[in-house]
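Bit of a strange request maybe. I'm writing a small parser for structure token strings and I need a real example to test against, not something I typed by hand. Could someone generate the tokens for this chain?
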Amino acid sequence: MSLKARVHVPCSTKDLGKNVRKVCEVGCISCQMCVKKCPAEAVAYVDGLITIDHPKCIAYGPECQEICVEKCPRNIMRKYEGRAAIARQADGLKMAS
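Reply from user aminoacidic:
Good idea to test on real output. This should exercise your parser:
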């Protein structure tokens, strides 16, 4: 089976960071740390959303060590471990109290 993705963003919105923080503990606040740190330049901020060029990410190879996941201050970037893992991770997303 070929690798389809290395990382993913399970929760993304065009809302401003301060509004995201009010309703979601792990929502993307558009700080763009993942964009700045990606050595493959596969992560981009387009029209207010984080996007991942998966073929470019995969082509770069594992030497990037998924630095985008490590640098995300809200832990919204996740290593891709298949669709079942995405469903489990979504269960762990928490609304702000």
